[in-house]
Each structure stands twice: as C-alpha cells, then as structure tokens.
Specification:
The complex is a heterodimer of chains A (about 325) and B (about 300).
Chain A: H1 3-31, H2 34-60, H3 67-81, H4 87-109, H5 114-140, E1 145-146, H6 152-174, H7 177-187, H8 189-194, H9 199-225, E2 227-228, H10 230-233, H11 237-249, H12 255-271, H13 276-293, H14 297-310
Helix pairs in contact in A: 1-6, 2-6, 2-7, 2-9, 2-11, 2-12, 3-4, 3-5, 3-9, 3-11, 4-9, 6-9, 11-12, 11-14, 12-13
Chain B: H1 2-40, H2 49-67, H3 71-100, H4 104-130, E1 143-146, E2 149-152, H5 153-175, H6 177-187, H7 189-194, H8 199-224, H9 232-246, H10 251-271, H11 276-290
Antiparallel strand pairs in B: 1-2
Classes of the chains: A mainly alpha (about 325), B mainly alpha (about 300).
Chain lengths: ~325, ~300
C-alpha cells in the first residue's frame, strides 16, 4: 500500500477544507446579521485563549492558570495606549508585553513542578488583580478606564487574523522537532533533558509564545468593552475556562480545543442571560464528567466511537 | 511622664495588632489544617475547600435564623454533614480517578480539575437554594477589653474554638490507632496498604476530616463575619497560602502558618489597609520561589 500518496491526498483535502473555512470566515460579516458577528467574536476570544493554552500545557502537562493574567495585561495595554497609538500597534504591544511577562515568570517558575506551578500561576492572576486595584484606588484615585471603541466588523477581522496566525504557529510547533521535544518533556522531563533537550529554554519560550496570543486577544477585546476595570480584565474565570474547554474538546488534536471552546461559548451565550446559575452548575457538572469519563475529550470519544463503528484497528485522525 | 503615656499607647496599639492577627489567624489555621490533610495525605488539591466552608457557614446561618439553633450547637451538626459529603465524594469520584490515573502526578492534576468542577457545582447549588446576597446574623457581639485593646466576644470565642479543635485533632493524629494509620498513609500509601491499613478507607476518611475542618471553619466564620455563596475561593486561596507557608502536608506547620499569616495580615492592614491581600500573594510567590517546602517542611 502506498501510504505517502494516501497522506498527500489527505493533506490536500484538509488543506482545501481549511482554505474554504477561512474564505467563509472572511466573507461572513458581509451577509450575516450583526448579532452573529458579535457571537463569533466571543467564540474567537475563547478559541484563541484555549488553543494558545493548549499549545503549552497540552504537550508539557504543566497546568497553567495564568491565562487571565496575560489576557488582562493585553486589556490594560489597550486601555493605556488606545488613544495614543493605532490599533494594530496596540495589539502588537499588548502581545509583546504579555510575552515579556511570560518570559520573566517562566524563567522564574518553570523549575517548579506540578501543583506548585499551578498555584504560582494562579497567584500571579490574583496578585496583578489586587495590586492594580490598590494602585487605582490609592495612587491614581480612579477605578477603571475608558477604552476607545472600534466597530464590530474590524474587531471580528482582527480576531480572525490573530486566530489564523495562532493556528499556523500551533501547527508548526506541533509538527516540528520543538513539538516533539515539548511532548518528551511532558512524558519524562529528566529523560528529555538527558537526550539533549534544553528543557528550561524550550518551556519558557513556548510559555511566552502562548502568552503573546492571549495578550493580543486581550488588547483586541478591550475595544469591545469601552470601559474596563481590574476585575473585568483579570477575571479568574478566564483562567479556568480554557482548561475546561481544552479538556472537553480533547487536547490530542489541534481542532479539539477549537471544538470545545466553540461549544462552550455558544452554550454560555445561550444560557447565561436566562439562567446564569444553571449555566455555571452545568459547567461544573460537565467538567467533572469530562474528567471522569472523557480523558481524551470529545474528539477522543468520537474517534473511539468511529473506531467501533467502522471496525478499523486504528482510529482515523 | 509624656514618654510613659506614649509608651503605653504604643503598647496597646501593638497588643491590638497582635490580638487582631491571632483572631484572624485562628480561622486561617483551622481551614488550612483541613486543606493540608486533603492535600498532604489524600493528594487532592481541593480547590473547592472554600465551598465546604461556605456550606458550613450557610447551614449554620440557616439553622440560627430559621430554627433558632445556637451556632455552637451547629458545630456538631454542620461538621458531620460536610464530613459525610467529603467522605462520599472521595469514595466515589476521587477513588475512581485515583485508580484510573496512570501516575500519582496525573491523579493530582486530574483531581484538582475535578475540584474546579465541584467548586462551580456547590457554589451554584448554594446560590439556587439561598440566593446570591450577603447574609449575616448577630451573635455574642459584646465588646471585651483585653489589656486596653477592645474586641467582640464572638471573635475571641472563634479563636478559642479554633485552637481547641486544632489541639484535639492533633492529639487524635498523634495518639490514636486511626491517627497512626493516617500518618502512615501520608508517608507511603503503598507500604501502609501492605501493612494492613485499609488505604481507600483511610484516604476517604482524611478527605472527610479535611471537609470537617472546613465545616467547623465555616460555622466559626459565620459567627463573626458576613457570608455569601461566592465567599469560598478567597478562603481557599488563603488556605493554600498557609499550607505552602507551613510546609505542604505538615499539619503543625499549617496551624503555625495560619497564625503567622493572620499576624502578617494584621500588620500590613495597620500600615496600608488595601494591601493585605497583595502582601499575602507576595509572600506566597516568594515562598514558592525561595523555599517551596515552607517553614516546617523537610
């Protein structure tokens, strides 16, 4: 059997599918109602945070609860520079500031293992939140800031662009030797170090790259909110959501977190205005069930089902 | 003469800060001992610890305002209720996770994430039952003078009970057969199992005892502070900081760490009121970086 022809045919197929999806996304605001665009913006926000979270935490197994910190840094960059610089520059700077913060945090903390790393990253979110809150109350004397608004279509296209760049980055990291090295860190860190992987540098840089996209998404999303304060920018829920969405979708494939994020954001939009507490309750139940019964997420579950139906020995990925 | 009067004022002020710190620290110590037991022995980093505290507090509030049951009697009601919830959760949810996880590290990660799920479930069930508002009641709110510093009687009562519960629990761990089994399970679960300790039972009991401490803590908190269904996470975070400060898994360390953190909070609040939480996090992060084993850790 000629496997190479089979795979190249597959890659052509999936390549053209991706092109069609992006064409649809690009022309979407031309023929759809405004509300759908707004919904898609929030879906993209969660997709970007979840995919960039998975980029680092998926292969390495280091559970980071810092997304809210990096996102919030992006939001605050937008609030501070929004009236001075053009939006693309603000987004770039928002990403870069998050990138630098992640480099610093990563260099300091990535020698912490397991639960210590989780606690540290969560502490970072709360530290930034409470420090900025104190700063605004006691030093500047005002809580919250105004962010220059941009129309929804522009925000939408910016999010699509960030998403496209993120997917390219995630794809190349996953399919390069860096991805392989990250995977080896997740499986056995000492062994990875002994086979010549520069463990600390690799972890820190990947952590920082994932933070870049969270910061960029934060800087873009800030323009949608017009008014922000530390509790909006550094909302701890933004740290928990990507973890749940990635686990629910499945971290084995690049599209797993996308599916998880899309489903949950839609569920949120649908439920949160009418039954906010039921939404959070369902959220919790799904989380427990997903951890207990779906170790490979929705994508893994579907693959297993497909395997059973088609009767093939290996699941088609 | 003026010097002496000033000295006396400073002394009272210091006393004020120290006692206020100890009063807060007593509660911190109690809830941290619970979390320390759950993490140190059962290896579940229970992010939902604060939700068990909230449950204890709300059941106490409900019993007091609806049925007029004295909060100190509620200690004997709330504690067991929360203990049973914790015990059953460990026997079902966490035991399943423990047997299906490929490694102890994977179990720690998975069980922590499952606790996030529990956090949202418990919190929102509580909101659906009791509503999202801030609740409170007045109990023993008479002032007591301690060498010039004045405090409400309920806070002193809280500290007294926190210390009694802590000491009793320590004696239980140190002197009884079950306590010995728990300590053995903390050191080496596999070896303890081989020596005839029913390990699933002991781990579930530990998780239950952790929840029991949270329930007691909740009752005591409801006596002196306002409560609301979303209060849990703040106490969880404080308990986390305390167990890192005291050394992960060390129960005396957690108790001392709690009192110490209460003191630090009280001192920082005296200097700059808005910064006490910031100070907690700074201490926490510095500790993780410099001495992750804490003050009494090995």
């Amino acid at each position: 059997m000629d496997i190479s022809r089979f795979t190249s045919k597959r890659s052509v197929l999936s390549g053209s599918a991706i092109l069609i999806i992006f064409f649809l996304l690009a022309t979407f605001p031309l023929y759809s109602p405004g509300y759908t665009v707004v919904l898609l913006i929030s879906i993209f926000m969660y997709i970007i945070i979840t995919v960039s979270w998975t980029m680092f935490s998926g292969p390495t197994g280091y559970i980071s609860l810092a997304p809210a910190a990096f996102f919030g840094v992006g939001v605050y960059t937008s609030a501070l520079l929004g009236f001075v610089l053009p939006l693309p520059a603000v987004i770039g700077i928002g990403g870069l500031v998050s990138f630098c913060l992640a480099l610093l945090v990563g260099a300091l903390t990535l020698r912490l293992r397991g639960i210590y790393f989780v606690m540290f990253t969560f502490g970072l979110v709360e530290l930034l939140l409470h420090f900025i809150l104190w700063w605004e109350v006691n030093i500047t004397g005002t809580t919250g800031r105004v962010v220059p608004t941009v129309d929804n279509t522009t925000v939408y296209y910016l999010m699509v662009i960030i998403f496209a760049i993120l997917m390219l980055t995630a794809y190349f990291i996953k399919h390069s030797k860096f991805g392989l090295a990250l995977q080896s860190i997740g499986e056995y860190e000492e062994a990875a170090a002994h086979t010549g992987v520069n463990v600390t540098a690799l972890k820190t840089v990947t952590f920082a790259i994932s933070a870049f996209f969270m910061g960029a998404a934060g800087a873009t999303m800030a323009t949608r909110w017009t008014y922000i304060d530390p509790r909006i920018a550094f909302n701890p829920l933004l740290s928990f959501m990507p973890v749940l969405m990635a686990i629910f979708g499945g971290m084995g494939q690049l599209y797993g977190p996308i599916i998880g994020a899309a489903i949950f954001t839609y569920l949120e939009e649908f439920l949160i205005t009418r039954f906010p507490y039921y939404y959070m309750l369902i959220f919790g139940i799904i989380m427990v069930v997903a951890i207990l019964y779906m170790p490979d997420g929705l994508v893994g579950l579907l693959q297993k089902l497909w395997k059973r139906i088609s009767g093939t020995k290996y699941a088609d990925t | 003469m003026i010097g002496k009067a000033q000295e006396a004022i400073i002394m009272v002020e210091i006393l004020d800060i120290v006692i206020a710190g100890l009063l807060m620290g007593g509660i911190y110590a109690l809830i941290a001992v619970g979390l320390s037991l759950q993490f140190g022995v059962a290896h579940v980093l229970n992010i939902a610890h604060g939700e068990f505290i909230m449950l204890g507090a709300f059941v106490t509030w409900w019993l007091y305002t609806q049925l007029g049951i004295d909060p100190l009697v509620s200690l004997a009601i709330c504690g067991p209720i929360v203990f049973i919830i914790g015990f059953v959760l460990y026997r079902t949810l966490f035991t399943r996770l423990r047997t299906s996880s490929p490694s102890p590290a994977a179990f720690e990660g998975n069980s922590m994430l499952a606790c996030f799920g529990l956090l949202f479930i418990i919190q929102n069930v509580a909101i659906l039952i009791w509503g999202a508002d801030i609740k409170g009641y007045s109990y023993l709110a008479v002032p007591v003078n301690l060498g010039g510093a004045v405090f409400a009687a309920n806070r002193l009562l809280t500290l007294g009970f926190a210390i009694i519960i802590g000491v009793v629990f320590y004696l239980f761990l140190a002197r009884t057969r079950l306590g010995k089994a728990i300590r053995a399970a903390a050191q080496d679960p596999a070896a303890a199992g081989l020596m005839g300790v029913n390990i699933n039972q002991v781990l579930a009991l530990c998780f239950g005892f952790g929840a029991l401490m949270a329930g007691f803590g909740g009752t005591l908190i409801s006596i002196s502070y306002k409560i609301q269904p979303t209060m849990g996470l703040e106490y969880t975070v404080i308990a986390l900081i305390v167990i890192v400060l005291g050394g992960l898994g060390s129960i005396p360390g957690s108790f001392l760490g709690g009192l110490l953190l209460g003191l630090v909070g009280s001192i920082v609040t005296y200097i700059e009121p808005g910064l006490s939480l910031v100070a907690y996090y700074v201490i926490f992060m510095l500790l993780l970086l410099v001495r992750p084993t804490g003050i009494l850790g090995k």
